[in-house]
């Protein structure tokens, strides 16, 4: 069963965008890196994650945490 996290605050989205920009990756590159890690995700879906309109799966969140080499606290910090 996939557990999804519905974003009701923009914190996660803003932090994911900031981390991506700090790494100088495009959304396409992030989606490709996630696919290598076993997440079936498109650039369009990743864009929706950054916009906060896609209920991100916990498995996707874990992959992003590993790709950016950050803690969960970093993903959700204000």
Strand content: 5-15%
Q: Structural class given helices, strands, pairing? A: mainly alpha
Coarse shape: globular
- Tell me about the largest β-sheet: 2 strands, antiparallel
Uncertain spans: none
What is the helix fraction of residues, given as a range?
55-70%
Radius of gyration: 11 Å
Strand order of the largest sheet: 1-2
Q: Count of DSSP helices?
A: 5
Query: Quick one: how many beta strands?
Result: 2
SSE order, one letter for each helix or strand: EHHHEHH
Average per-residue pLDDT, rounded, comes to 92
Cα(first) to Cα(last) distance is 30 Å
Task: Describe what this molecule looks like in 3D.
The chain has 78 residues and is mainly α. It is built from 5 helices and 2 strands, in the order βαααβαα. It has helices at 11-22, 27-36, 43-51, 58-68, 72-76, and strands at residues 4-5, 56-57. The protein has a two-stranded antiparallel ribbon. Helix 2 (27-36) packs across helix 3 (43-51). The protein is globular. The mean pLDDT is 92.
Structure in a nutshell:
The termini are far apart. The model has no long low-confidence stretch (mean pLDDT 92). Helices cover 60% and strands 5% of the residues.
List the helices and strands and how they pair.
Layout: E1 4-5, H1 11-22, H2 27-36, H3 43-51, E2 56-57, H4 58-68, H5 72-76
Antiparallel strand pairs: 1-2
Helix pairs in contact: 2-3
